[in-house]
């Protein structure tokens, strides 16, 4: 049997919605309402409701959402912002573009998200209180640490209770990078309730890049927040610093969400809960099919997390051999991400080196993202699992080597 299985199928959901999507475009054409207007307002209302926040502000990308959120929250040039090394570069680009310097803290070896214990060690042992403000000053950079950006990587929420508690002690702002976490949930032991990703920090950034769980037919993003003045600032930042046309209180950016994308997103948002449910079912099925494969480390979901399974990421020591054997059967896979940010050329000026963040480094060498999308069928999944098993058997014959299951 030969059947190709893509890593991601972006065609089917759009074909299913084609008539409705075309109606959005036709509506925009007949009114020439391309920028702002009721489509944008309507999507913002619906998305805020979906996330359980008071406000949502549509912007042109997830990167702009992060940048505007950090700027509006009050990150100032010359300060530093903590995040993780195993994220997409947009996280740290936004920090730099806000005028701050990224500083990294390593991740947890099972969740791959910011490790609160390591954050505590960083703040306690690698920072000194500023003599005047009491805020932490990083010994490494001499800069005041203003904020922390936990990334809900692969859709799995970071441990926000612990992070928020440290943030409170050290007067840090928390801006969530929820660019992969539309509809993911976190059980707050503090609040004794499930919270939606994007509703826990002072603000959160979402991306609607086409491949995300909620994707536009182009570029788009949003910031969510419960803080009205922050929402207002972001509305100004996205629109050249103006609250009223041609009256500029400050310099801003051209960072608006366009109306056609907003209309498309509003339509697709109605399907998001179903699509996420489907992804969780697929993740459950992968677990059943693959749980006994020796040397394959499956995703770990703590009891307090409900991932939206933006990605289904496994670990295997001989990653190239594993990927090649799947590719030979036309099964698409990905690596998110192959080089941690502290080892990227772009960040050599930050002065980090190999060994600085051992968990992120080990993980980045072993991760593989398997096919994951809401329309992945049971038989397609069984085919993937069969090929993974075949690879393992071949490796047990001594032709390849798989990792020991050390964790998970
Ligand atoms: C996609 C993504 C971004 C950036 O979003 P864009 O819309 O592509 O600008 C930022 N952070 C993470 C973790 C992402 O996955």
Annotate the secondary structure layout.
Elements: H1 11-16, H2 18-31, H3 38-51, E1 55-59, H4 62-73, E2 80-83, H5 90-97, E3 101-104, H6 116-125, E4 127-129, E5 136-138, E6 145-148, H7 160-169, E7 173-177, E8 185-188, E9 193-196, E10 203-207, E11 221-225, H8 228-237, E12 242-244, E13 247-248, H9 259-290, E14 305-306, E15 312-315, H10 319-328, H11 358-366, E16 367-370, H12 378-396
Parallel strand pairs: 2-3, 2-6, 6-7, 7-10
Antiparallel strand pairs: 1-11, 4-5, 8-9, 8-14, 10-11, 12-13, 15-16
Helix pairs in contact: 2-9, 3-9, 4-5, 4-8, 9-12
The protein binds pyridoxal-5'-phosphate.
Pyridoxal-5'-phosphate binds next to helix 4 and helix 5.
Strand order of the largest sheet: 1-11-10-7-6-2-3
Q: What is the residue-mean pLDDT, rounded to a whole number? A: 95
Largest sheet report: 7 strands, mixed
Count of the separate structural domains? 2
Net shape: globular
Q: Which CATH C-level class of the largest domain is it?
A: Alpha Beta
- CATH level-3 fold name of the largest domain: Aspartate Aminotransferase, domain 2
Distance between the termini: 33 Å
Share of β-strand residues: 5-15%
